[in-house]
Write a structure and sequence with these properties.
- This is DUF2961 domain-containing protein.
- InterPro entries: DUF2961.
- It comes from Paenibacillus flagellatus.
- It holds the Pfam family DUF2961.
- This protein is mainly β and 375 residues long.
- A hairpin with a 5-residue loop joins β8 and β9.
- Strands 3, 5, 6, 11, 13, 15, 18, 19, 20, 21 and 23 form an 11-stranded mixed sheet that branches. Strands 1, 2, 4, 7, 8, 9, 10 and 12 form an 8-stranded antiparallel sheet that branches. A 4-stranded antiparallel sheet has the order 14-22-16-17, with no helix packed on it.
- The chain starts with 14 loop residues before the first strand and ends in a 15-residue tail after the last helix.
- It has 4 helices and 23 strands.
- The radius of gyration is 23 Å and the shape is globular.
- Helices cover 7% and strands 38% of the residues.
- The chain has 2 domains: 139 residues, Jelly Rolls, CATH 2.60.120; 176 residues, Jelly Rolls (Sandwich), CATH 2.60.120.1390.
């Protein structure tokens, strides 16, 4: 078994270490660049061949939602459509434009308070690389500090897949006739022998391997959100596919409806709700660094939003993979409004729910909340 230290002693030739950063070219301490509202800037333009080994960013922005409104894109080998397109926060492991610490092997959000954003995914290219940052906001990003650490190589082997990352987001619909009835609390649940209505993690064409996902779920109710199975259809195979899961927390290597912070290099829970049950925002992650999902022609990866897709959830993900080019063009990135968070459900909303429940139970003077069990 290898580790990052296994070949650290080995001397190599034909490689030159370089960095592109925001350092001040005149020698002052103003080591940053600014990005005006609506502006897109080049972070790095690198002639090939080479490999980006590490990226680091930190920001000072007026827009409190800049992590969702600033969009990171990467282009390899002169392509016109990006191989990486995602809001900055979501890409580095922070959902909902929030700032919090996040620990994993390939990605991290470091102190202070998760403001140091790091990526260690290697990103090879043969004929150049370009990284851009768009400020899709009505307020300026006053300061962007960054490093892009890379290697120049004499050549790049044909077997080097290109790094890809895609952000998706969906306000899911409750599809079954029985409605939102996880664990059959309201009524018996029906079966779901297909991928119909699943949330799509990735829909890929080409030859490559899938290496990770950041999964951000905002639940408007206290019910457990995680009875959804993950489903992987490789190279056009029919359902149930080569890989079929048993539940959302199982897919993220946890168990029994976890609601606690946990950080492993390959998987974990970086953010959990502090409300009623599972109401609110949960960030799960898993990186397939020891067990990538290989595909020769195509990959369709999806997950149910609750068993049989019975829950309304605000789901967003960033999928990470390597593949040969050309890749399937991404759907158009949702507008700024389309990336906006759903309103948080709070105490007043629950109070209104209880008021409606009291009326539904006849408006008695001692309505407690358990009466539905006897109906």
């Amino acid at each position: 078994m290898t580790s990052p230290l296994s070949d650290l002693y080995r001397l190599r030739t034909g490689i030159r270490t370089k960095r592109i950063s925001s350092y001040n070219r005149e020698g002052s301490n103003h080591d940053y660049v600014s990005v005006q509202a609506g502006e897109t800037i080049d972070i790095a333009v690198i002639p090939g061949p080479g490999i980006i080994k590490h990226m680091w960013f930190t920001f000072n922005a007026e827009d409190p939602n800049f992590r969702r409104n600033a969009v990171l894109r990467m282009y390899w080998d002169g392509e016109t459509h990006p191989s990486v397109e995602a809001p900055v926060g979501d890409f580095f492991g922070q959902g909902w434009a929030e700032s919090y610490n996040f620990v994993s092997l390939p990605l991290a959000a470091a102190p202070a308070g998760g403001r140091g954003l790091n990526c260690y995914f290697p990103m090879p290219f043969g004929e150049g690389a370009r990284i851009t940052l768009e400020n899709d906001s009505d307020k300026p990003i006053k300061a962007v500090y960054y490093y892009v650490d890379y290697e120049e190589h004499d050549s790049m082997p044909a077997s080097a897949g290109r790094f890809h990352a895609w952000w998706n987001r969906e306000l899911t619909e409750s599809y079954p006739e029985e409605g939102e009835t996880e664990w059959s609390i309201v009524s018996p649940q029906t079966n779901h022998p297909s991928t119909d209505h699943n949330y799509v993690i990735a829909d890929l064409v080409g030859h490559g391997h899938f290496v990770g996902i950041n999964y951000y779920v905002d639940s408007p109710g206290p019910m457990w959100y995680g009875e959804g199975d993950d489903m992987w259809l490789i190279d056009g195979e029919p359902w149930p596919g080569s890989m079929h899961g048993t539940g959302t927390e199982d897919f993220f290597n946890a168990s029994w409806c976890p609601n606690e912070l946990y950080a492993h290099p390959y998987f974990g829970y970086a953010r959990i709700p502090q409300k009623l049950g599972f109401m609110g925002r949960t960030h799960c992650y898993r990186f397939f660094l020891e067990d990538p999902v290989h595909f020769s022609r195509s990959l369709h990866a999806s997950i149910e939003h609750g068993h049989n897709n019975n829950l309304t959830l605000d789901l967003s993900t960033v999928a990470y993979w390597y593949q040969s080019e050309p890749h399937k063009r991404f759907p158009a990135l949702p507008s700024r409004e389309g990336r906006r968070n759903m309103p948080e459900i709070g105490m007043r909303d629950v109070h209104v729910w209880r008021h409606e429940y009291r009326k539904a139970m006849g408006g008695g003077r001692h309505i407690w909340g358990h009466e539905w069990r006897r109906t």
